[in-house]
């Protein structure tokens, strides 16, 4: 009887994540199947399941890397007045997504009704929202910056989600960068005028 093939766990993890990113980038979340991933890595799907516990585990590992890249992109933004920094963030976020459309879609795609997001995932999203809230709070200290950050993120995220799915043209002929910056400008005008 043949013995099961042994793999270096760290090497296998890197190869699976790299292959999963490639599949996601090519075809979005529907392209990430056990069969396609196993073929891309050159292992059985059982080997992948043993390492990650299933495709959800693979997707979470890819998303963890994507969130780390997003965090690094945000931290690399130059210091600027809050209004300018928020515009720079919107433009950078759209560019970040456009470079990773399929991978980016996996951040918020997938089963949700019966699967709770891991705590680290929610913590990462809360940290992103807190980073957006900080300059909003400096613009309008009397506003609830956390709520305004949620609203701004959702507005920009809607634009980015349609752009990532190549569906923005169904709504408008304007570019995603333009719309994201307009969402920032609208929020700044609203809180600066005490419109809440």
TrEMBL record:
<dbReference type="InterPro" id="IPR025996">
    <property type="entry name" value="MT1864/Rv1816-like_C"/>
</dbReference>
<dbReference type="InterPro" id="IPR036271">
    <property type="entry name" value="Tet_transcr_reg_TetR-rel_C_sf"/>
</dbReference>
<keyword id="KW-0238">DNA-binding</keyword>
<dbReference type="InterPro" id="IPR050109">
    <property type="entry name" value="HTH-type_TetR-like_transc_reg"/>
</dbReference>
<keyword id="KW-0804">Transcription</keyword>
<dbReference type="InterPro" id="IPR001647">
    <property type="entry name" value="HTH_TetR"/>
</dbReference>
<feature type="domain" description="HTH tetR-type">
    <location>
        <begin position="10"/>
        <end position="70"/>
    </location>
</feature>
<protein>
    <submittedName>
        <fullName>TetR/AcrR family transcriptional regulator</fullName>
    </submittedName>
</protein>
<dbReference type="GO" id="GO:0003700">
    <property type="term" value="F:DNA-binding transcription factor activity"/>
</dbReference>
<keyword id="KW-0805">Transcription regulation</keyword>
<dbReference type="Pfam" id="PF13305">
    <property type="entry name" value="TetR_C_33"/>
</dbReference>
<dbReference type="GO" id="GO:0000976">
    <property type="term" value="F:transcription cis-regulatory region binding"/>
</dbReference>
<dbReference type="InterPro" id="IPR009057">
    <property type="entry name" value="Homeodomain-like_sf"/>
</dbReference>
<dbReference type="Pfam" id="PF00440">
    <property type="entry name" value="TetR_N"/>
</dbReference>
<feature type="DNA-binding region" description="H-T-H motif">
    <location>
        <begin position="33"/>
        <end position="52"/>
    </location>
</feature>
